[in-house]
Amino acid sequence: MRVLQYALLSAALAAGALQPGGAAAQAPGEPAGPDTVVFNASRGKVTFTHAKHSKANECASCHHASRPEKPLTAAKQKCTDCHAAEPVPPMKTALKDAFHNTGTGEGTCLSCHAKKADTNPNVPSACGDCHKKDS
After folding, report:
1. From CA 2, how far away is CA 132, in angstroms rounded?
2. 93: nearest Cα among 75, 107, 77, 76
3. What is the mean predicted confidence (pLDDT) over 110-131?
4. Burial 77-109 (b: 16+ CB within 10 A, else e)
5. Which residues contact 122 (CB under 8 A, 6 or more apart)?
6. Relative to the CA of 52, which of 14, 20, 37, 124 has its CA 20 to 30 Å away?
7. Is the pTM of this model over 0.85?
């Protein structure tokens, strides 16, 4: 559960809408982040539709509050500003594990998609639904 709570950060996974104090916030008229973000994952590129996800979910569903061990340095930060392929101390969570830790079955993307796929068959739930190999 702690992995899931910590992972509810990052993910999403893109440009965050977090204030340095920790609360998710967005000023009126302020853009909600990029329309899409492309992650070059080893299993194939993942095109994350940030705009679509941000319309259906609160920012705090993915972007977590500032942490004492690695405080935010700006009001909006990308997940990759803190979470790298290999975590660099004081970070403990790699980018992949923040999105989906297949060992625990948790992570921002994996947990949400698994939960929503139970009631909506159109929600991507298999690896290849999101990870696309270049042809």
Report:
1. 30
2. 107
3. 93
4. bbbeebbeeebeeebebebbbbbbbeeeebbbb
5. none
6. 20
7. no
Phi-psi region of 14 (alpha: psi -120 to 50; beta: other; left: phi over 0): left
What's the chain's average pLDDT? 77
pLDDT top residue among 125 and 11: 125
Residue 26 φ/ψ region, left for φ over 0, alpha for ψ in the -120 to 50 degree band, beta for the rest: beta
Residue pLDDT, tens place only, 52-97? 998 888 888 888 888 888 898 876 678 888 888 898 898 888 999 9
Name the residue with tokens 């998609």: 113
Q: What is the DSSP string of the chain?
A: -HHHHHHTTTTTTSB--B-TTS-B---TT---S-S-EEEEETTEEEEE-HHHHHHHS-GGGTSPPPBTTB--SSSS-BGGGT--SS--TT----HHHHH-BTTTTBSHHHHHHHHHHTT-TTS--SHHHHEE---
Structural domains of the chain sorted by starting position, each given as residue range(s) with its CATH number in brackets: 2-132 (3.90.10.10)
